[in-house]
Each structure stands twice: as C-alpha cells, then as structure tokens.
Model the fold of this input.
Amino acid sequence: MLLPKGDTYETEIAGRFYFHVEITLPLIGPPVRYEGWLLPHPNTAHAQSRPIFQQTLQRALNRGVNRL
Done:
C-alpha cells in the first residue's frame, strides 16, 4: 500500500532531551523531518522536569514500546 511511514524517537543524550521525527511518503520521500534538543525553561528547575521524562519513558517501556 502507499501509506505514509514514520520514524520517531526521543532519548536523553548528555543530560539533554533529544527528539527526531520523520514522515516518509512512498514515491515522494520525506516531506516532514525535524529533530532537535529540548532545554528546560530558565525559570524552571531542571531537576523538577527530569522525573516526568523518566516516568513517561518507564510507562512506554512497560507497554513494550522500544522507540517513542
């Protein structure tokens, strides 16, 4: 079938949250691709946001998801 496909993941590298999103259409290629780093807002303590990421990752792993 000529359905779009995607490659999406997120991870932590050197203490920074990294994400990658790519959508590919058959016969056309990737019309959408972006990636980058998310950094904590200067007014938000990084230590407060880290447990949320870890909880989200743990929930995904519990569901058997190996790529977010």
